[in-house]
Amino acid sequence: MRLNIYIASFLFLMSFTVMAIEEPEFISIEKKDAFEIREYKSKLIAQVLVSGTFDSASNKGFRLLADFIFGNNKTNEGSKKIEMTAPVITREASEKIEMTAPVISEETERGWYISFNMPKEYTKETLPIPNNSEVKIIEVPSEKFAVITFSGLVRDKKYVEMLNLLNEEMKKRNLEAKGPPVLARYNPPWTLPFLRRNELMLRF
Fold first, then answer.
1. Rounded to an integer, what distance in angstroms lies between the CA atom of residue 170 and that of residue 177?
2. How confident is the model at residue 105 (pLDDT cuts 50, 70, 90)?
3. What is the pTM of this model?
4. Dihedral of CA 24/28/30/34: which sign?
5. What is the pLDDT of residues 121-165, one digit of tens each?
6. Mind giving me the DSSP string for 151-190?
7. End-to-end alpha carbon distance in the chain
8. Does pLDDT of 171 surpass 70?
9. How far apart are CA 135 and CA 199, in angstroms?
10. What pLDDT is attached to residue 18?
11. Is 69 exposed, middle or buried (0-12, 13-18, 19+ CB in 10 A)?
12. Residue 113 in contact with residue 51, Cβ under 8 Å?
């Protein structure tokens, strides 16, 4: 079973490079260089809560969600593969975060939410039901986010640098963050750092 999950995950990531995949819909309210204000439409997500370091929790969460979309689910007709989407979303489970600290420190174990957006063709009633009770299906209402886009590897120094820039842009506009930062990653792990697309987001 574990081997099948790894193979499915590999194929999932391979497809990032060979076909266009669905991304969540939003309205761009303001855009200036790498900074943007977006209003996202309501959406359906599959989410797991995992613990560990940033990297270990990301890997575990991804495997659990990949297992769900590749068929560990049930419908009236049996299991069903769910089409992939991007990005993979990571956020810390705690609502109280020390913004001056490197919150993705590889040495620090925390609780993390990892989520996939579900294809917009589905509603909560029509989406296959996860067999694994750790996978939760959640309806997310329309939300506004301040977003900064960057490339490269997501490491402590880069994360804090981008978070500081994002906070500066929000202060200029008198926007107050509600909740912890959200990290969106769009590329498979073998993508060259300068080609990677990452987004750091704060809801307001």
1. 8
2. confident
3. 0.86
4. positive
5. 999 999 999 999 999 999 999 999 999 999 999 998 899 999 999
6. -S---HHHHHHHHHHHHHHHHHTT----SS-EEEE-S-TT
7. 41
8. yes
9. 24
10. 45
11. buried
12. no
Q: What is the rounded CA–CA span in Å between residue 166 and residue 55? A: 23
Say if CB 94 and CB 60 are below 8 A apart. Answer: no
Cα 110 from Cα 53, distance rounded (Å): 6
Residues 82, 4, 46: CA angle, nearest 5 degrees: 35
Which one-letter DSSP state was computed for residue 201? E
Task: Pick the closest to residue 22 from 70, 89, 87, 90 (CA basis).
Answer: 87
Check pLDDT > 50 for residue 17.
Answer: no
Token pair 């925390």 in the structure block, residue? 110
Q: What tokens were used for 58?
A: 């990301």
75, two tokens: 């419908």
Number of CB atoms found within 10 A of residue 175's CB: 16
Pairing of strands 198-203, 110-117: unpaired
Note the pLDDT tens digit of each residue in 39-90.
999 999 999 999 999 999 999 999 999 999 999 999 999 999 999 999 999 9
